[in-house]
Amino acid sequence: CVLCGRTDDCPEKYGEKRTYVEYNLTVHYYCLLMSSGIWQRGEEDEGVDGFLIKDIRKEVNRAAKLKCNICKKKGASIGCVAPKCKRSYHFPCGLQRECIFQFMEDFRSYCWEHKPVQQFTDKEPRGASPCTICLDLVEHLPAYTVLKSPCCKNAWFHRECLQYQALSAGIFFFRCTVCNNKDKFQKEMLRMGIHIPERDASWELEENAYQDLLHCYQHCDVKRCLCKKGRDYNETDSKWEIKRCQCCGSRGTHLACSSMKSWEQNWECMECRSIFAKSGNYRKRKKNSLATSEKTNGTNCLLEEPSPKSPRQSSGSPRNFLLQSPKIMCQNNLSPCSHLELPASNRVTMSLSPVISNRNLSLMQKCLREQRREVCNILKELKVQVKTQTTRLNINAENIWSSAVKGFRQRNFSPTNTIEVSFSNCKSGSKTNSFAASKRHFFQLLMHHLQNSSLFEGSSGKNLALDFQAVKENLYFEAGKMIAVSLVHGGPSPGFFSKTLFDCLVYGPENVKPTLEDVADVDVAQTVKMIQYANSLSSLQSTLQDCCEFLAAAECLRPVTTLCDKNMLVNDILTYHVIKRTIVPLESFRQGLKTLGVLEKMQMHPDAFSSILCHKPERLSAEIICDLFTIHSSSDVNKVGGADFWMSYLQDVESGESVVTLEDILLFVTGSCYIPSIGFDPEPTIKFLRIRYPIGKRFLNCLELPKTKTYQQFKNKMEITIRNTLRVERE
Predict the structure, then answer these.
(1) Would you kindly state where each structural domain of the chain is located, as residue ranges?
(2) Most CB contacts within 10 A, which of 197, 298, 643, 705?
(3) Average pLDDT over residues 529-543
(4) Does 17-110 match 622-730 in CATH topology?
(5) What stretches of 459-507 adopt beta strand conformation (E)?
(6) Is 438 within 8 Å of 485 (Cβ atoms)?
(7) Parallel/antiparallel/unpaired status of strands 685-689 and 630-632
(8) Which is more confident, 266 or 393?
(9) What is the enclosing helix (H) or strand (E) of 369?
(10) pTM: predicted TM-score of the whole model, two decimal places
């Protein structure tokens, strides 16, 4: 090693020993990390993990002038950081002399006199106890070779055992072996010189380690399977991928057969749903479940959603629906809307006749579209604040929340700057995606994470949850800020707010009356139901006696003299549990939403913003995609039917007669599988050119299509190009 001069190859002690023949250089990784006069000035793939070769040469020359205080030889590149301490030493010598090397922050080193030590009180039990890793006895002494757990009183370890455990488990799995604490334990171990590598656990990196566990149930059990290749057909990363029941895993469905998106995981079979319903723990589940049949007006009516990629059509219905009016579509049971467009808190199955249901949904669809156009214009007004000065966010897609919080809190971040996103764990991302596409993908991942995070609770229409750690770290403010920035910078809208949460944000919590549907806690909901449905004063008083501790904690304990007092009591419980209990997170969340003036616009235009915050985005259809793109064509395009081929292809994709989906087409052109609330900038266009295959120019949102003589040629080229391009990107 050019820094310590030793030939030892012991990764557990000195880190990986690396040799670079082209530079005539050999170095221990830990020797390089801990050297006092070198910094990581390059990218991760430059030099030695970001340490430039010329910087390493300079550090070797600097160390050559320093004598090690332990072995008395030259080349001591590591110095003690204690003030006025001038000791220098090699890394192996420091280990031998029991120095402490902190593998965090500035990678500090402390000599044997100034090293940090763990505090031992007089009350500490003396003697010996088993090391919870190797199970050999460890003496309870303040020694370098002994470490105690910061979170458990009776947990003692050998330093060597802890170091081996950390190298094996990595940063994601290294924790206290007694209480499973991670944050506090890792912080103390890093302080005491344990190196925790930033990688996955060794058992997770072993290839095919869990191959025997990968034999999964693969069969579509929906009453009417839409797949032409049969119920056992399973193709990953497509609408014919089979998802298993999240509860039992012994029932399955194709994504298309239950109207699911590829990232959705919350599907349950009918058997599990019935068990939940009978146990009283089932309030309202997500919309995707096995379809069941019900008699309506003497006909079989399947209670399943039409697939967003292959909508059902009534028998004999014409396929050129792009020319049909919404009224005709409702009469033909071809309404482009579904109960996805209902408010998130009201997505329940309707027992209306098909015609009446479709008519109401069509009117709601029309109203929502108008409101979303209004929001689009409002957000464009807010975007005027965004300057051309850029802020770069380095995002790790596997740890989206932590990297997003870190990016939003960095010193040079400003919501009025143009945001550029670079995915640190995707080496080819910047080559295949524009910054706009990467930014939209980042905001999509972020909104999906927020929806399923501990900051919110509820099944579909969500309210704020009470997370004390999140309050302490001010994460509710960051969540509100991220949603505001996403809306203005071209990201997706959340779409999962409950009406109660939205009203609290817009009108103030003091003017909102929550309902039983807003209670996510099953036990609290059951208590409220027992009070609400008490049919006599004695049963009411008995119920109150059983839950008096809960009522006292909620400050709702009051004398009840008449049966009608239960209504006021129920209102008090709901107000406490949904609003008063979360008043601190709510205020912090509101402050975050004030970013870029979003909350102010929400309060000025509540109906418009409700359409994007409380409703899921409208399902993509051939009509929507057709209206989204502007066709730039010459006269000879019409001769070969280019525009007609494009519309016919969209109809084939929507009806399930294609291997790609409408989302795939949008992703191919724009880098996004959704339409942002603010719209695309620039607006998507189509050009017909004399080229062999389609080209999606994401930085221009432009789709260049080939001129072909027949529709089948056009379709084949579209399918091959889009499918292969997206497959390569996924890989």
Answers:
(1) 17-110, 128-204, 453-617, 622-730
(2) 705
(3) 89
(4) no
(5) 463-464
(6) no
(7) parallel
(8) 393
(9) helix 354-382
(10) 0.52
Distance CA 100, CA 190 (A): 10
Measured CA to CA, the distance from residue 25 to residue 142 in angstroms comes to: 40
Residue 499 has pLDDT above 90, yes or no: yes
Phi then psi for residue 605, to 5 deg, are -130, 65
pLDDT tens-digit map of 340-354:
344 444 433 333 334
Q: What is each CA distance from 454 to 265, 461, 465, 466, 524, in whole angstroms?
A: 17, 14, 7, 8, 18
User: So what's the pLDDT on residue 244?
Assistant: 87
What torsion, rounded to 10 degrees, do the Cα atoms 413, 183, 10, 141 define?
140
In the numeric block, the tokens 């120095």 are attached to: 99
Class (C level, CATH) for 17-110:
alpha beta
Instruction: Kindly state the helix (H) or strand (E) to which residue 129 belongs, with its residue range.
Output: strand 128-130
Cα–Cα dist 312/319, whole Å: 11
CATH 3.30.70.1350 corresponds to the domain 622-730: no
Task: Give residue 213's pLDDT.
Answer: 65
Helix (H, G, I), strand (E, B) or coil at 514: coil
Q: Tell which wins on pLDDT, 114 or 433.
A: 114
Predicted confidence (pLDDT) per residue in 47-82, tens digit: 888 889 999 999 999 999 999 999 999 999 999 999
| DSSP summary character for residue 578 | I
Number of H helices, E strands in the chain: 28, 22
Largest CA-CA distance found in the chain, in angstroms, rounded: 97
Strand partners, 20: 25
pLDDT range class, residue 484, cuts 50, 70, 90: very high
pLDDT on residue 68: 93
Q: Which amino acid is at 232?
A: D
| Burial of 492 (C-beta count, 10 Å sphere; 0-12/13-18/19+) | buried
- Look at residue 198 in the predicted model and tell me its pLDDT: 87
Could you tell me which residues come within 8 angstroms of residue 498 by beta carbon, excluding any fewer than 6 positions away? Answer: 344, 345, 458, 461, 462, 463, 517, 518, 614
* Alpha carbon distances (Å) from 211 to 161, 207, 216, 234, 252: 29, 9, 11, 18, 21
